[in-house]
Amino acid sequence: MSQIDDLAFFQRLALAGSLTATARDLGLSVSAVSKRLKQLEWRLGVSLASRTTRRLTLTVEGERYLTDGGAILEELVELEEGLNAQRASLSGPLKINATFGFGRCHVAPLLSRFCINHPNVEGTLELTNFPMTPGEQGVDISIRVGELPDSRLVARRILENRRILCAAPSYVERMLPLSVPADLSRHPCLVLRENDSDFAVWRFEHRPGQHKDQAVKVSGPLASNDGEVIVNLALDAHGIILRSYWDVQAHLEAGRLVPLLPKWQGVRADFHAVYLQRRNAPARLRAFIDVLQQEIPRRVASVDYR
User: Fold this and answer.
1) Looking at the DSSP assignment, which residues form a beta bridge with residue 254?
2) Which strands form 163-167's sheet, in the order they lie side by side?
3) Starting from the edge strand earliest in sequence, which strands make up the sheet with 214-218, in order?
4) Which of 225-229, 254-258, 297-301 has the highest mean pLDDT?
């Protein structure tokens, strides 16, 4: 088989994550898939993955073969798309990574519509608690919040976003005075725990710009590693939350939550579509990011970011 066929096979294998899943996708036996992988490793003279029938873990050489080989395949697809008179006909694999809440609410519906409009695109949405790096496990686009961690990555902003301090009306009726962020230390704050820290730090900017930014250590009797749980706890009047506007927009509009400290606001937490810097990004990748930039702001009502 050709080297291009080997690259495509290994990309499919890494995307599936196991010999069994790959065999099912390709309509082959597990032994046939295992044999082809062994033949590929023999030809290259390196081990590409450690594996069982249920799990595949890429070696350093395997990660390089996947990343660099994937770029070669994408350039080939880009070339063929450029030669095709019908450029609107996009095709090929497109894997997106996003967090659970934002991915379910906004990315999944847009990917569904995109694949209806472009039936030759093979879309995959991988939802995780922590962002994956483009190129990792075949990810093409990663939806991230905040600053870029790697200069090799390109980011296009798809949503302006801030975190909003809010609570249920029934909690507000009985709560202690709250006039500045420092007062939060006396309130039960519902903390989203995404690491092993024993506390959370909430950061605020003063809207008129008359005071320095403030960072406050907060804590409370209830916490979770899931944003939806935190919002539900706030709706049950257990305390105060600091959540992205997109996540609490509907509750604020319905009056189920009310904003607090109107002269203070959470720091910027804009959403970006992130991908690897390369000479020719595939047309399907660029097209889907265009969709994200156009549609995400329409799905989340505007808020004053000044």
Assistant:
1) none
2) 241-244, 163-167, 258-259
3) 214-218, 200-206, 264-266
4) 254-258
Final residue belonging to a domain, choices 64, 83, 102: 83
pTM over 0.70: no
Do both 169 and 306 map to the same domain?
Answer: no
Structural domain span for residue 63: 1-83
Same domain for 192 and 120? no
């600053």: which residue's tokens? 147
Comparing C-alpha atoms, which of 18, 4, 274 is closest to residue 135? 274
Domain tally for the chain?
A: 3
State the residue for tokens 């990660």. 63
pLDDT at 260: 95
The number of angstroms, rounded, from the C-alpha of 29 to the middle of its chain's C-alpha atoms is 33
Q: Does residue 94 register a pLDDT over 70?
A: yes
| Shared-domain flag, residues 167 and 261 | yes
Grouping H, G, I as helix, E, B as strand and the rest as coil, residue 259 is strand
pLDDT at 86: 46
